[in-house]
Amino acid sequence: MNYSNYWPAMDGRPLDYWLDSDVARMAPVQTQSALRDIAWAYGQWLGFRAAVGGLGATLVGAGFLSLAVMGESVTLWLTLILAGLALTTTAGLVGRVKLANIAHGKQPRSSRAAGTSASGIGLALFISAIMSAIMFSGFSGWLSQGPGPAFSLFAICLLILCGSLSVFAAPGYCAQHGRRFFRSRIDSDPKLRQELEAMSLAWRDPVANNSFGSL
After folding, report:
1. Looking at residues 149-171, what average pLDDT do you find?
2. How far is CA 35 from the centre of its chain?
3. By CB neighbour count within 10 A (0-12 exposed, 13-18 middle, 19+ buried), where does 2 fall?
């Protein structure tokens, strides 16, 4: 739902009222509001940016590792580096397009990301353990070929862990703390605060009977 549409005022209250911590504590956790919906979307896009950016950095690292140990495989390390750079660029675009315009943007329709840090970390460790076990079983001979190959094997496992944490743990953390991050963004972004202030004074739910706040 796009919350940038201004509807006729209905008991409009200033934004500071809805941001007040006492007002937020009085509203049950499951109570829906426009601010909470926007905060949810903010957490989802923040997690997506973290996942894409972290995975991009992991691929860049894997590319340079491949360059160091298999410099003759130009296609491999060049593909990894370029793919990683493309993902990190995408993460930057998410920050400039989606996060910067969160008050006027469309919400993600659904999310399959982990909802908490614990679930995200648990899934990341599970995936990393499986992938690392496969790597060790397939390349265990590297351990007896000297410190260079052994270090490369451990570096690959570390990159697998970093990639898994980026994809699973980071979105879970952002989703769990989305409201707190959104509140911090409001405090540090005058443009966003101004947009939300105008919306709060003229808010009317076009579908249900939810209020603008609290957060």
Report:
1. 92
2. 19
3. exposed
